[in-house]
Design brief:
The structure is a single chain. The protein is an alpha+beta fold. The chain has five domains: 3-180, P-loop containing nucleotide triphosphate hydrolases (Rossmann fold); 193-277, Elongation Factor Tu (Ef-tu), domain 3; 296-366, Alpha-Beta Plaits, CATH 3.30.70.870; 373-481, Alpha-Beta Plaits; 484-596, Elongation factor 4, C-terminal domain (Alpha-Beta Plaits, 2-Layer Sandwich), CATH 3.30.70. It has 14 helices and 31 strands. The strands form six sheets. An eight-stranded antiparallel beta sheet has the order 11-10-16-7-8-15-12-13. 43% of the residues are buried.
Length: 599
């Protein structure tokens, strides 16, 4: 295929602005999928994606289009996730394209992730075509949306007006792609250079690599090599997505497709890596490769310890499909054997947990999420990175602690400005700037500790803004903070799974709230149970679960008082013994209590 007849593009948008619906209309209009096969969100094949109405994994599809000039063209659409947790996948997909459709909802206008995705696309030099969607709705305001695209995003192209639901404007979108997005460039005879933008694991065929060829040609029987891992293998099959995998003779410059090479270990394939010829290796990889770094960590334990081998097997299988989360074995005194997982964000954590429970039929306890801290001990020259509060050194040995910060961008109606800014101040945010999109919409920029964001920040933001605020964040590095370790003791034993790192100013309130919550959740025993919160070696809060008392005098119908005293003394001695020997069984709801504590 002549590369001048190819257009590679992506669709980027804020969540729920109609990205998947527009993709459906493009597939339908180009005849890639027949009306009989058509269903809503056809690119979102995972059950969770369809249920939640979000895109989780990048996907690709090849469309044949006959332009207004009567010539045939190939359009490769690389669909991307919209949520901030999957920004890494978005950036890799954009690197495989020459242009992108930036979809903006005419009823909502420019949102936080519209800004973030626009910045990502601009950073890799893509040609952006603004598409204003949902023009059929009575509340749509096309003129104001166009003004925001011009003023805030600095995109001066004329917007394409569409209603993806009704199919209006779809031919205009296809012609805009043909006219404005440049054709790929490269030499088919040069040494192979192909960018991996995604991968999938197949039980029978191994890892299926999704790639875009930048230079050279790849065909069956060729020996290839991965630039960063050094893996060498022989190509067994190459092909296109139309939209199912269809084998082809070769993939050449500008083409998007898949590669099968019987790779059994997905860790040999890294998203963003470069595929090259083994006989003609490249001196440097294609630009932009970096490993995905987890920012949120949580412990995952089976409710029944007999399910531990099944959980281990499930994590191995799921990691073959989604290599962006990391895991390692962890042991907890309270919860037994389990794993500590690192995720790209809270939604990513929720998706992985849901998939483990659904696809592998597991019942799991997930501990409160926390972030990675840098800790410097007295006498040490360097900081040590710790992802688990239970591993923190004794408070007397710590010289300083640094915590990760993120740059937060919030787009909201001006009406909710005060409430949102108060929330950010309460979460120790540092004000960076304010910008007005129009008379009634604005952008707020703050630097915020990631630890303050991982519990309930998003829920609080949506609540105080009546759902109208949207936000996006990017890591901005580590800063030194006055942090302490808050431990929870139940019946004098430290419960490591409930330990957390909090700011010193909030330790007392967090400890008190957690003790009160646990008092409600822990059932009564034959002896009283002390629930304590400890910070820097001193108890900052305590609650007591009273003993379940049996009425031992019920059988005494009058008689000498000494008989009653004897029975009460006997009960008292028994309770003392039970208190010394008794152990407290903590219900799984207690480990989720941290998530429900409002800071």
């Amino acid at each position: 295929m002549n590369s001048s007849k190819i257009r590679n593009f992506s669709i980027i948008a804020h969540i729920d602005h109609g990205k998947s619906t527009l993709a459906d209309r493009l597939l339908e209009h180009t005849g890639t999928i027949s009306r009989r096969q058509m269903k809503e969100q056809i690119m979102d094949s995972m059950e969770l994606e369809r249920e939640r109405g979000i895109t989780i994994k990048s996907k690709a599809v090849r469309m044949k289009y006959t332009g207004a000039d009567g010539q045939d063209y190939i359009f490769n659409l690389i669909d991307t996730p919209g949520h901030v947790d999957f920004t890494y996948e978005v950036s890799r997909a954009l690197a495989a394209c020459e242009g992108a459709l930036l979809v903006v909802d005419a009823t909502q206008g420019v949102e936080a992730q519209t800004l973030a995705n626009c910045d990502l696309a601009t950073a890799v030099g893509l040609k952006l075509i603004p598409v204003i969607n949902k023009i059929d709705l009575p509340s749509s305001d096309v003129a104001k949306t166009e003004e925001q695209i011009f003023e805030v995003l600095k995109i001066y192209e004329d917007s394409v007006l569409v209603s993806a639901k009704e199919g209006r404007g779809t031919p205009d979108v296809l012609e805009a792609i043909l006219k404005h997005i440049p054709a790929p460039t490269g030499d088919p005879k040069a040494p192979l250079a192909a960018l991996i933008f995604d991968s999938q694991f197949d039980s029978y065929r191994g890892v299926i690599v999704y790639l875009r060829v930048k230079e050279g040609t790849i065909k069956k029987g060729m020996k290839i090599k991965m630039f960063s891992t050094g893996y060498v293998g022989q190509v067994e099959e190459v092909g296109h997505f139309v939209p199912t995998k269809t084998p082809a003779d070769q993939l050449t410059v500008g083409e998007v497709g898949y590669l099968v090479c019987t790779i059994k270990d997905i860790h040999q394939v890294r998203v963003g890596d470069t595929v090259m010829e083994n006989d003609r290796p490249l001196e440097q990889a294609l630009p932009g490769y970096k490993e995905a770094k987890p920012v949120v960590f949580a412990g995952i334990f089976p409710i029944n310890q007999a399910d531990y081998p099944q959980l281990k097997n499930a994590l191995e299988k799921l990691n073959l499909e989604d290599s962006s989360f990391v895991y390692q074995v962890e042991t907890s005194q309270a919860l037994g054997f389990g794993f500590r997982l690192g995720f790209l964000g809270l939604l990513h954590m929720d998706i992985v947990k849901e998939r483990l429970e659904r696809e592998f039929d597991l019942n799991l306890i997930v501990t409160a999420p926390n972030v990675v801290f840098d800790v410097k001990k007295r006498g040490d020259a360097d900081y040590v990175r710790l992802d688990n509060p239970a591993k923190f050194p004794h408070y007397g040995d710590i010289e300083s602690i640094r915590e990760p910060y993120v740059g937060v961008t919030i787009v909201l109606p001006v009406t909710y400005q005060e409430a949102v800014m108060n929330l950010l101040k309460d979460r120790r945010g540092v004000h960076k700037g304010v910008e007005y999109l129009s008379s009634d919409r604005m952008i707020i920029r703050y630097d915020l500790p990631l630890g303050e964001m991982v519990l309930d920040f998003y829920d609080k933001l949506k609540s105080i803004s009546k759902g109208y605020a949207s936000f996006d964040y990017v890591p901005v590095g580590y800063q030194e903070s006055d942090l302490v370790k808050l431990e929870i003791l139940i019946h004098s034993d430290v419960v490591d799974a409930l330990s957390q790192i909090v700011h010193k100013s909030k330790a007392y309130y967090m400890g008190k709230a957690l003790c009160e919550k646990l008092k409600e959740l822990i059932p009564r025993q034959q002896f009283e149970i002390a629930i304590q919160a400890r910070q820097d070696g001193r108890i900052v809060s305590r609650e007591t679960v009273p003993a379940a008392r049996k009425d031992v005098l019920a059988k005494c119908y009058g008689g000498d008082i000494t008989r009653k005293r004897k029975l009460l003394e006997k009960q008292k001695e028994g309770k003392k013994k039970a208190k010394l020997l008794g152990s407290v069984e903590i219900p799984q709801e207690a480990f989720l209590a941290v998530l429900k504590i409002t800071q």
